[in-house]
Amino acid sequence: MKASHPPAWAAKLLGQLISGPHRDALAGDLIEQYRQGRSTAWFWRQALSAIIVSLAKDRTLGGPAVLGSLLVLLLTIVSVARHPSSLGSELFIMDLALLSGYGAFSVWVWRQRRPGERDALAAGAQTGVILGVVLITSHTIEWFALDETSAVQLVRGAGSVLLMLGLLGVAGSAAWQRTRSIMLAVIAGLWCGSLAVVIFLSFALTLNLAFEAHAASWLREPFVASGMADAGAFVVRNSLEAASEILVRVPIAALVLAFSGGVSNAWMMKWPRMLAVLAAWSTPFFFAAGAAALWYADSLDRAARPPFVMAGVLTAGIALCGAHPIWSSLSSRRGDRPRRS
Amino acid sequence: MVMLALIRLGDAAYGVPISKIIEQSTNREVLVGSVYAALERLEAKGFVSSQVGEPTPERGGRAKRYFRITSSGLRQVRDMRGALVKLWKGIPALQGGT
């Protein structure tokens, strides 16, 4: 039997990067086998494969999100390093600080072990991935100018915003359904938003770096108006602005909507079935009214739009946020729901 | 395969012997992380239960986790064996080990 210690870095990575209830037992098994004569290469192979398996089966997606946050940080730094003249404001520092916050949140999620927290975070992760795909799809359509007519632009723009509102509400509602905790519903919503932003920024910043010439031509008009000399630097500064907006706005929206989703679900669970059915029937009308307000706003002058846009987003957002609570209210707890005798 | 290994090992079933018995049966290197992933899934389904042993110095102070197959796990193994035997019988070329 070997008396030596296993490779220190592999053991350290194993201790830090593995999640799950059998983490210590797994590490102990590898150390025991190493001391029985297995090679250093075997230990490294086993440690790395165990880390990959652990990351892949983590329903909260905390580990991949940590890597995603690091990737976004790296892409931001590389973008600025390629065009140093894009600096000159506090945007870069602000983005780095915000991304560090996202990274810290991802690490916190990754290290959660309690089943309640993990259930809520898994609900947030599922909706977060869907929201990330929605944001990527919308950005790709806009980037490659696939939405040429204003009607298609409206559907894409308003559709992605409404889906975001709806999914953040779903995250809160689904987490409440799993845990019966409003606090965990809010955390699930924040995780949904955070994950979606990391997925989206990883994609958008990679796209900008890979197709910089296309990005510059896409932003030609605002670049000329900006008075900057370097088109690439303008693209980077534009990315930093857009990133800071999304990094700030999405968590705020997540906080409000996930709270609403969780509270709505808790509230509707106490409703008589008849009221829940009534809500289910009226929701499509609410959504249609909101969509009609947005459609009408699009036909107005820019200055006259805000009240209709606000009303449209609010009405359609309420309908989308209510969808999951209504559905879960109708489909679960049928046995203990108060019924008319 | 993991459940059969648990049955063969009885009370001595923890990660190291489970991996070794599968390795000896298949003549392939077994990834211990994958064995634990399978054990976690089986435990979540109620086919396997586990309990922590004493920490030992040769394991860097880490405790072993002993696994046992549950009665529903045993039923599952029997059902699976029945299904495999039926499927096996439907392949004439492989009957008799040829």
Any overview of this molecule?
- The complex is a heterodimer of chains A (341) and B (98).
- With 341 residues, chain A is mainly α.
- Chain A is 80% helix and 0% strand.
- Chain A has 13 helices and no strands.
- In chain A, α4 runs antiparallel to α5, α7 (150-179) crosses α11 (231-268) and α9 packs across α11 (231-268).
- The model of chain A is unreliable at 335-341 (pLDDT under 50).
- Chain B has 98 residues and is an alpha+beta fold.
- Chain B is globular.
- The mean pLDDT of chain B is 86.
Q: In one word, what is the shape of chain B?
A: globular
Strand order of the largest sheet of chain B: 1-2
Number of strands of chain B: 2
Average pLDDT figure of chain A: 85
Query: Ranges of chain B with pLDDT <50 over ≥5 residues?
Result: none
Give the class of chain B from helix and strand content and strand pairing: alpha+beta
Question: Which tags fit this structure?
Answer:
heterodimer, A: 341 residues, mainly alpha, 80% helix, disordered C terminus, B: alpha+beta, globular
Summarize this structure briefly.
Chain A has 341 residues and is an all-alpha fold.
